[in-house]
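Worked example (supplementary).
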Amino acid sequence: MTTVTETTQDVPASPPAPNRIKDLARQLIATRRVIVGIVILVLLTLFALLGPVISPWNVGERDYTALLQGISPDHWFGTNRTGLDIFTQTTAGLQKSLLIGLLVALISTVVAALVGAFAGYFGGFTDRALTWIADLALVLPSFVILAILSRHFVGNGGWLILVVLLAAFSWMVTSKMVRGLTISLREREYIHAARFMGVPPYKIIFRHILPNMSSLLIADATIMVSTAIIGETALSYFGLGVQSPDVSLGVVIADGASFATTAPWVFIFPTALLVLLVLGVNMIGDGLRDALDPTAKSRRS
Amino acid sequence: MSTETIVDSAAADSERTRPTPVLEVTDLTVTFRGFNNNPDVKAVRGVSYAVHRGEVLGIVGESGSGKSVSSMAAMGLLPDHAEITGSVRLHGEELLGKSDREMARKRGKVISMVFQDPLSGLTPVYTVGDQLAEAVMVHNPKGGKAKARARAVELLELVGIPNPAERYRSFPHEFSGGMRQRVMIAMAMANDPDVIICDEPTTALDVTIQAQILDLLRTAQRETGAAIVMITHDLGVVAGFVDRLLVMYAGRPVEIGSVDEIYYSSRMPYTMGLLGAVPRMDLEDQGALVPIKGNPPSLSALPPGCPFAPRCPLAQPECDDSEPDLLPVGSAVRTEDGRTRVRDDGEQRVACIRSGEIDANRWTAQDIYPVPEIPEAEAASARREDLPEVLRVRDLIKHHPLMKGSVFKRRVGTVYAVDGIDFDIREGETLALVGESGCGKSSTLMEVMGLEKPERGSIEVMGREVGSLSRSERFSLRRDMQIVFQDPMSSLDPRMTVFDIIAEPLRTHRVGAQAVTERVYELLRLVGLNTEHATRFPAEFSGGQRQRIGIARALALEPKLLVLDEPVSALDVSIQAGVVNLLEELQAKLGLAYLFVAHDLSVVRHIADRVAVMYLGKVVEIGATKAIYEHPSHPYTQALLSAIPVPDPERERSRTHIVLEGDLPSPANPPSGCSFRTRCQKFITLQESDQEQCMSAEPRILPTNGDDQASACHFAERQAGLV
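After joint prediction of all chains, the assembly is encoded as:
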């Protein structure tokens, strides 16, 4: 093997320090899946914002002359049983669902990661306290609490409260997984090495522990997007979710589900948008996971 | 490969004069087909060997050289997607191409195997005895259960399990690693096989247990008269154990011959380098080890010529033309069809086109390999007492409580991990902590590195008592001591680039960004890596390179004390030599003090100035390396040193090993008085009144010679000539 170079030997100019974030961004942009995913999400957002504007109908406006009618120049996506224009409803619903899905996924994954990692890393009292909170949140009847608070969802910013509540009831299982992983990661030698060089615990968690479970967290966040949208639908079915006049994709899908075979347009369009949304999120998540994982890269090349 | 007949007529001639070998492998190749556009992996490329009755053949090579795969192929244990060609003959009967069912009748009866990991070799849900009885029954179903059971008990007794009739009903988890390996050997010899293949049988075991197992394998061979194929990477183990030796590199045999021929007159640069790279426990001033540059080639993309040429100091342009065949020394002549079918006829054969030249010039490893000059440290000249203390540990204790119960936890016992140890390290000095696994070496390190107030005793770093430090003082003290871990896989964060890994300690201690960048590149050069390595991830490096990254990280803050936790034990010999040389060089250059934890006493002899031998959480002997190795005074040190095989066949044959009885007692329940008395070879020879003293009084560590050698034994007696 090479011997140690003499220090007296003239040292060549050091190349600049590599920039991890720049590398990562370059890598993400170079991945086709990520680009496709981003394009899908951007298009969906534009569609959701512009849809209600260009549509000749208003949200909640009923056309009593066209009940449960198929695609026509008047109603681009058809109408449902009560004469609501599916195009308008779907695009308006997509607005709320995009926000709810992405925000709930983000909040709940972040909370899960923090609670799990801190509980697992510190152990002892911190662990017991945080685990107790998670267990409590698991056994609380979320439905009842949502029902009690549902009247606050009405009006401006009401959906934000819904987002917070949905997130508050969906982080626990992931946090338990994160905690278990942290406990096993904590004994790795690079964590010991960091501790012995004096890195404070919170920095160890953010620098070493969380990045090493990013695959799990990204997978969890992508799944959570669709789970949140569907979960909101279930609430809306009982009138506990997004309150009228607000509408969500979930509400539209739930309405159309029973007509899926007899009047497919009622069901197909909103569902297709939901599938597209989830697909886009998954593609970005996939690309992000690969970009963050150095082993995946060396395997591919 | 084609099925042409043997061309080498000389080989055919000598074949007639020798009896038919028990196992003969000819031109065996194993290829793992690559899926999804991955290239094929040619794991074994033309291996030939023959083993005769009662003969022991050793196969040595570094990891990935194909030594295990070739024997698995012979046993028919490879998965279906492996393509195997060539021939494997057992008593003249072709084994390749036999169905799994036919092979099952042979395996365990005619040919059997001992694996490396004794834990996964036994089923955890059946008793040890039942598994042994099953091994007997499978090949002899008419014998009846009672008979198989009796045979199992007999076998357990034969392999030295105490109370075999009782232990028959034990489950594998109730056995220690050494005892499990005994059971595996009992299983292998259950049906008096003709060939036993041992795949690294002692690698996972401690040295004293290794000595027991090697002893046992000799017994097994005597009992069954079987031929043994011993696969290992340890050149010490094979020296005293095997008759003939096959050296493998990159899936191909590169040298074969009797053990003396290989050790004393190797004609292949790779073997020579390998032998030169082994630190020797029996030599005092060995000088720098012979490092082999580079890494073994990837088995999926081999160069056309000799696979060793890129690392070989004797490489010539011709070496890249074609791969040399395994030919008798000096004969580089090829047969008319350009391909020699090599058959193992007992002669020394070498795969090197310059073997004749090496033979004629009588070159040794030191002649052909460039050995680095390691500068003499300045500190070596000063008197030890005059040097400042870097670390001083006084009466250190670490006890782990054993808890029981889920709601109301109560203490049911204590694990005495570290039980009162004293040592000190001076500037520029290396102290090695040695001992078997479970003796408390690593717990001691963790206590020292934790810089917390110990349960009892004191730790002083740079003359400062750690228990009295404030938070910020403790933080700044961390600059002066850094650690290098054993496993280069898990000691580097896989998600960080090499640059960030080495920069982490600097950034933590708030070094400016510009200074960080400069220092990182300086460190990379210092440990022998390239600057373009900085942007890569740890997964892209080999074990030796990763260990160098770990060392660079530890050196970043210019510490005065480097704690090394088995830094080379996970590396191959040729790579290990490079890292050991690097450590010695850094010490001389930077005046570092090392606290070196190891179980490999050969490396310790090479690198350490002083040695502390630990047993069950206590230091039993401490002193200068030379004094300890030449005149050990504690019976445990004596046994430990005597148990280590020396890579020198002649010397190894003339040595007598002290083989310790039994296993390390549990640190939760150490014996009264002297904790070593249960295994002590001296204890048995003592008179009853003296034994009483060993049983009741714990020996204190007292000087045994005028110098600083001290040992904790009531009847310490310095003894020479053990290594």
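Two points are worth noting when inspecting this output. The first strand of chain B starts at residue 23 and ends at 32. Residues 1-16, 333-338 of chain B have pLDDT under 50 and may be disordered.
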